[in-house]
Design goal:
- By secondary structure, the protein is α/β, with parallel strands linked by helices.
- The strands form 6 sheets. A 9-stranded mixed β-sheet has the order 8-7-6-9-1-11-12-2-13. Strands 15-16-17-18 form a 4-stranded antiparallel β-sheet, covered by helices on one side. A two-stranded parallel sheet has the order 3-14.
- The protein has one domain: Alkaline Phosphatase, subunit A, CATH 3.40.720.
- The protein is about 25% helix and about 15% strand.
- The protein has 11 helices and 21 strands.
Length: about 500
């Protein structure tokens, strides 16, 4: 396995940065990763959203470094979570759809079955950090299992609080510890903040890694009525229709969560020796995937980005990333280097003074050089995505090589799209016809990568029926998705 820690590869800066890293490792900083669910690239004030109020997250960006070209490893949640925990592109493991997924049995191709749990033989980032005496905690949504034998406490997390259920009081529970109850009337993000604070207080005297993964801002959308009313009035006053007031309020709930965690870190005197990482597991949502069968409201937009969650266009995979770590980051800096979720693994392990596992391929690269020198280029040839499933788009793979991006559809059509992101961030002009050489080169590299990682590929469907191709079926029940029975969103506290 290649050791891909890259401090020794960064030009004339390598020696001083590497020595600084060794001294930091001796201090073993705390690491807190906040991974919001379905938060889009354009959903925060610091990324250009002028409607939603996110003062604590915006302040975090002002005090640290903000990444403009950071990507989720997957277009939906489980793949990104798999990549983050393993340090690998999820195609190697086969968790390429959300677990358990869904499918269209009458489409052109039969999509591959996803692996239904993160394998226990994978050395997770938590397990790697435990080898250098970190205490590890997990709070919130896990979504890498089909049962408790694969929950965080089996994957290296000492403190495991897996929470299931939607946002409003009474609708969620601590699946891993049913005896732990929220306060009466408590919104889910507020309860998740309570658990994070408990973990920080219990472990303030030793190095810790805490990952908090709220269900927000996932559907079914819900928010407390006072916040919703604020954004309803704001929408009427400004004439702005998107994001929907309930969605905006739910994003603000996430900001409150971040603020409470940051306040506790400060109160415990840990701010100067804690790395705070804020990101999302995939791009933002316009509306639910089966909208043809069930006419939900459109709740947000990622313009100028094209597409949404479940697609390999920029809107489906480009997400926020903010990092604050006072010994390395400079306030208000910005990096445009293309980076991705599975970069967290080597970043955290290196910061902690640990070693990458010897017998596990690590596809990520440490981000530490970018924290001190945002303009540094990582020695990575390209970023890759593999999403061979129907969701908000067709099955596809994609490659980004610096400013060029190719999407290759895997549904038997042979369709390809080529974009020059430096001049066309919105992916409005497909350059396949104008750049045949570039298309051939990127296609070859993408196909070779799929072979290297043994990516699972869709196959021809002998039961293809154009008249029924739009039907969604549930993998658990083996029956059509009953979209008309689902709870519509948005919802608020008043609707309970």
């Amino acid at each position: 396995m290649k050791n891909r820690i890259v401090l020794t590869l960064v030009g004339g800066l390598w020696l001083s940065i590497a020595n600084f890293s060794v001294s930091l490792a001796a201090d073993q900083p705390n690491i807190i990763l906040i991974l919001i669910d379905d938060l889009g690239w354009k959903d925060l004030g610091c990324y250009g959203n002028e409607f939603v109020e996110t003062p604590r997250i915006d302040q975090l960006a002002l005090e640290g470094i903000r990444f403009t070209d950071f990507y989720a490893s997957g277009a939906v949640c489980s793949p990104t979570r798999c990549a983050l925990q393993s340090g690998q592109n999820q195609a190697r493991i086969g968790i390429t759809a959300h677990i358990p997924g869904h499918w269209r049995p009458f489409e052109r191709v039969i999509t591959p079955q996803t692996t239904m749990a993160l394998p226990l033989d994978i050395v997770t980032v938590a397990e790697a950090l435990k080898t250098v005496n970190y205490t590890t905690g997990y709070v919130g949504k896990w979504h890498l299992d089909t049962g408790r034998n694969f929950w965080p406490d089996k994957q290296g997390y000492d403190y495991s609080r897996v929470i299931g259920g939607p946002h409003l009081p009474g609708n969620y529970r601590v699946s891993s510890h049913p005896e732990i109850k929220p306060k009466p009337g408590q919104f889910r993000t507020d309860f998740e903040a309570d658990l994070c604070i408990e973990f920080i207080q219990q472990n303030k005297t030793r190095p810790f890694f805490l990952m908090v993964s709220p269900f927000a801002v996932h559907i079914p959308l819900a928010a407390m009525s006072d916040k919703v009313e604020k954004y309803r009035i704001k929408s009427e006053q400004t004439g702005q229709k998107l994001p929907h007031p309930v969605y905006a309020a739910l994003v603000e709930h996430c900001d409150d969560l971040v603020g409470r965690i940051l306040d506790e870190v400060q109160a415990q005197g840990l701010a100067e020796n804690s790395m705070i990482v804020f990101s999302s597991d995939n791009g933002g949502l316009y509306r639910r995937y089966d909208y043809r069968a069930h006419a939900d409201d459109t709740v947000a937009t990622q313009e100028p980005l094209k597409g949404e969650k479940g697609a390999l266009h920029e809107g489906g995979i480009r997400v926020p990333l903010i990092i604050k770590y006072p010994p390395l980051t400079q306030a208000g800096t910005v990096s445009s280097e293309p980076t991705i979720s599975h970069d967290f693994y080597p970043t955290f392990v290196e910061l902690a003074g640990g070693q990458l596992p010897e017998h596990q391929t690590i596809d990520g690269y440490s981000l530490l050089p970018l924290l001190t020198q945002p303009a540094v280029k990582l020695p990575r040839s390209a970023l890759y995505w593999h999403y061979p499933h129907y969701h908000h788009d067709r099955p596809a793979s994609s490659i980004r090589e610096r400013e060029w991006k190719l999407i290759e559809y895997l549904d038997g059509t042979g369709d390809k799209e080529l974009y020059h992101l430096a001049q066309d961030l919105g992916e409005t002009t497909n350059l396949v016809s104008e750049k045949p050489g570039r298309v051939m080169d990127l296609t070859h590299k993408l196909q070779r990568w799929r072979q290297q990682v043994a990516a699972r590929i869709p196959i021809h469907n002998p039961g293809y029926d154009p008249a029924r191709a739009h039907e969604w079926w549930n993998l658990r029940s083996g029956k059509p998705v009953a979209s008309d029975r689902r709870q519509r969103f948005p919802s608020t506290e008043k609707e309970r």
